[in-house]
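Researcher: Please predict.
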Amino acid sequence: MIDIGETETAALRAGRNASAMGRRAFLRSAAFLAAAGPIVSEASLAHARLASQMLGVLPPDAVIINANENPLGPCKAACEAITRILPLGGRYDRLGELDALTNEYAAMHGLKPENIAFYAGSSEPLHYTTLAFTSPARGLVMADPSYESANAAAKISRATVHKIPLTETYSHDVKAMVAADPNAGLIYIVNPNNPTGTITPREEILWALENKPAGSILLVDEAYIHLSDEHDVLDQVAAGKDIIVLRTFSKIYGMAGIRCGVAIARPDLLEKLTPYYQNAMPVTALAAARASLADKELIPTRKKCIADSRVETLAWLKANGYRPVGSPVSNCFMIDTGRPAHTVIAGLQKEKVYIGRIWPVWPKAVRVSVGSPDDMARFRAAFKKVMDAPMVAASEPRAGSRSPVRLSHERFLS
C-alpha cells in the first residue's frame, strides 16, 4: 500500500517531467515551424529553373551541365558498397554505419567524433545553421553572387540579409562582410565560391574569423574544396573557434543523388542545429561514403580529370574572344556573355545543352558546370553557334524576373 506522501511525491515528479516534456515539445514545435520552409539545394534550384520554362524530362542525349554534378558518379567501391547493403534497406542503420563513418571521418581530419554531424546532403545543415544563428535581430552576411540557400533560409528566420559584392579578383570581400552588420548572427563564405568557382584565400577567411562581430558565427561552405589547391580551415574547428564548416559527398565523390553531407564544428554549435530536425541517414549513403573515403586515389584522380576539362574549355573561351570570369578552380565557372543571359541559355537549350541559372546581380553572366570531355566539347560547339548568331531581343520568363538587378562590376554592363 502506498501512503499519501509517496503518492503526492510521485505526482509532483510526474508533473515536473510532464512540464519539462511540454517545454521541450514546444521548443521543438517552434523549431519545426521555423524550419518548415523548403530547404533550397543545388538540385531544387536547377529544377526550378527548368520548371519555369515548362521543360519536362530532358532529352536522353542532352548535355546536362546545370547543377554542378560530377559526371563520373560514385566510385566503383561506393557502388559495390551500396549493392551489399541494399538488402538491409528496409531497416534504419542497424549495423552502426553512422558511428563508423563519424569515427573514420573525424580521425581522417584530426578531429573528435563529437565535432562531426552527418546529414542527407550539406543543404540541410546549411539551412539549419542559418535558422539557428539568424533572426530579426541577427543578420546574415553573404557574398553576391554566391550560393543562394542561406539567403532563402534567412527569409524564414526573418533576418536582414547583407549581400556584399565580390572583389575585383572575385574573392569574398571579407573586410566589407565583417563591417556590414555589427549584430550579424552568421557570416557565410563559400570557398571555392558557387557560382564563380573562385577562391577566397585561407588567410582572409582567418582574418574574418578573428575580426567578426562578437557572438557571430562564421559558416564556411567547403563543398568544392577538394577541387582546388586551397587549404581548408578545419584546424579552426579543432582550435574551438566560432566556426562551422560544411562538406559534401555530392561533388568530388559524385554522390549528389545519394545525399550525404557533414557539418563540422564544436559540439555546442552542432547542438544548436538539432532542434530543427535531423533526418535518419540513408544506409546506402553511409555505406557509399565510407567506401569513398577508403579510396585514396579518388580525390587526386578526379580533381585532375575535372581540372583538365575545365582548363581546356577556359582556354578555348579565351582563345575565341569570350570572357570567362576570374580564375575558377572548381567544377563550375561563369562567362560574361555581354548580352542578356537568358537569351544565351535559351539558345543553348535549342542545341540540347542545359547550363546553370542566372544570378540577378549579374544578368549577363551564365554559369557552366564542368561535365565530361564529351559534354564540354558539345558545349563549346553550341556556345560558339549561339554567340555567333545575331543577338535577338527576348524577354526573360516571368518566373525568373522577380529579383531586383544590381550590378557589382561595371564589366557586366557591356
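Model: Residues 76-294 form a domain with the Aspartate Aminotransferase; domain 2 fold (CATH 3.40.640.10).
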